[in-house]
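Technical annex, item 7. During the second reporting period the consortium partners agreed on a shared format for inverse folding records so that results from different sites could be compared directly. Each record opens with the tokenized structure and is followed by the designed sequence. A conforming record, contributed by the partner at site C, is shown below for reference.
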């Protein structure tokens, strides 16, 4: 019977065969302990000299790290292991012998590990991070599918910037200028006018020359847009969604969080509603915390966000930022036109902004005014303007950065470990 490590709980007391790689091994006289991995998980195989033929025991003693093999044996429960099971090996079959595997069981620097990212992904910690990432993606689809959203895929190649920013990757689209998308939002607004509630999930690109632990050049965004929803409606969706994702990871990634040594007590309290603080009050709070240089009208940096988050145990919304430091499409507060009906969601424990969102301008005349103020002339944005011309409605949306969310939930210091093959300022390899 062939099976996988993730399924061995079904075969306790039975003999099975697993195709695996050798992650590590140790031996003690007449017993060899093989740390096996097969992509679905990690498990120990115990090879007792008296229970196998001489050839199999010699192989168990001498097999090299990351060699591939078929392992056959009986599954038994093992209360000492976090996994809970191990294999009493009866036979081994070598598939391929790995020679001089570069990532040995010792400390390696981050640049060395990033140079060998294609191999580093095999390690137990990196495997756990990717499993957490996968669960966040699964829970995302579950949340939006069960709440009546339609998934729409916006283009990656665009003729304009969603944010009106210059931090874009330029390319030629035959004889036209084109850019790699930094957000699918504008297209999702069009989709919301057709389907009501929509979401996208895909790669986005920022040509931002930043080296911080929170930034990637290529990252993945979840971007919902919702017709007939105002700013407060959107905040409720955001906190319900994030709560669902966190609780799903806690439920379905217990072993991975244990491998990552994540303090899950800090995640167990992540349930809606989340606290909210206005930008005005956030500036006051920062001044009280010793940030005397911050002035009203300035955007917050990482130290500011961390200081604000320290006052709360849950993610916190910072709302009503000054209109002048936000994107052209954000709806001004009708009671106070110098601030926008917007919010950033700041994760606890110093992980920074994970969501940015707002109510969008729905008035054609106001949007035309914003176009003029931001110099958005020509045909590139004409289609977006027409969304306010033909059946405009109040609508809101937000974008969640997947990698920052993975970093927070998994307790990982740097976002470079939260994506399979990170693209950083000085890294396009492997």
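Designed sequence (site C submission):
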């Amino acid at each position: 019977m062939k099976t996988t490590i993730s399924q061995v709980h079904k075969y306790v007391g039975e003999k099975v065969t697993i195709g695996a790689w050798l992650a590590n091994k140790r031996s003690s006289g007449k017993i060899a302990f093989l740390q096996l991995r097969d992509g679905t998980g990690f498990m120990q195989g115990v090879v007792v000299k008296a229970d196998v033929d001489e050839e199999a025991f010699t192989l168990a003693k001498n097999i090299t790290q990351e060699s591939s093999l078929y392992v056959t044996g009986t599954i038994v429960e093992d209360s000492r292991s976090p996994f809970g099971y191990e294999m009493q090996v009866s036979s081994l079959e070598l598939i391929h012998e790995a020679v001089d595997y570069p990532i040995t069981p010792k400390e390696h620097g981050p640049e060395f590990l990033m140079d060998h990212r294609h191999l580093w992904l095999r390690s137990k910690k990196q495997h756990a991070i990717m499993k957490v990432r996968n669960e966040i993606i699964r829970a995302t689809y579950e949340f939006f599918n069960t709440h009546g959203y339609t998934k729409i895929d916006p283009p990656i190649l665009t003729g304009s910037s969603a944010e009106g920013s210059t931090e874009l990757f330029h390319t030629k689209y035959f004889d036209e200028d084109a850019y790699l998308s930094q957000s699918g939002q504008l297209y999702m607004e069009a989709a919301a006018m057709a389907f009501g509630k929509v979401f996208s999930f895909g790669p986005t690109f920022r040509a931002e020359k930043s080296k911080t632990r929170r930034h990637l050049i290529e990252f993945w965004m979840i971007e919902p847009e919702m017709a007939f929803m105002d700013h407060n409606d959107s905040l409720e969706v955001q906190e319900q969604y994030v709560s669902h994702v966190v609780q799903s990871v806690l439920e379905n990634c217990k072993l991975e969080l244990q491998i990552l040594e994540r303090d899950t007590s800090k995640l167990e309290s992540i349930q809606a509603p989340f606290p909210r603080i206005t930008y005005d009050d956030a500036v006051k709070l920062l001044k009280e915390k010793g940030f005397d240089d911050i002035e009203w009208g300035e955007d917050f940096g990482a130290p500011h966000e961390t200081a604000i988050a320290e006052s709360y145990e849950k993610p916190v919304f910072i709302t009503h930022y000054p209109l002048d430091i936000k994107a052209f499409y954000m709806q001004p507060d009708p009671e106070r036109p110098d601030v926008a009906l917007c919010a950033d969601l700041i994760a606890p424990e110093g992980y920074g902004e994970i969501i940015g969102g707002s109510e969008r301008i729905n008035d054609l005349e106001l949007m035309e005014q914003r176009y003029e103020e931001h110099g958005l002339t020509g045909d590139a944005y004409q289609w977006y303007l027409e969304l306010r011309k033909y059946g405009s409605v109040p609508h809101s949306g937000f974008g969640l950065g997947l990698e920052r969310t993975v970093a927070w939930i998994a307790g990982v210091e740097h976002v470079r470990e939260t994506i399979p093959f990170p693209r950083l300022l000085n890294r396009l390899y492997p």
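The longest strand covers residues 15-28. The mean pLDDT is 96. All partners now use this format for quarterly exchanges.
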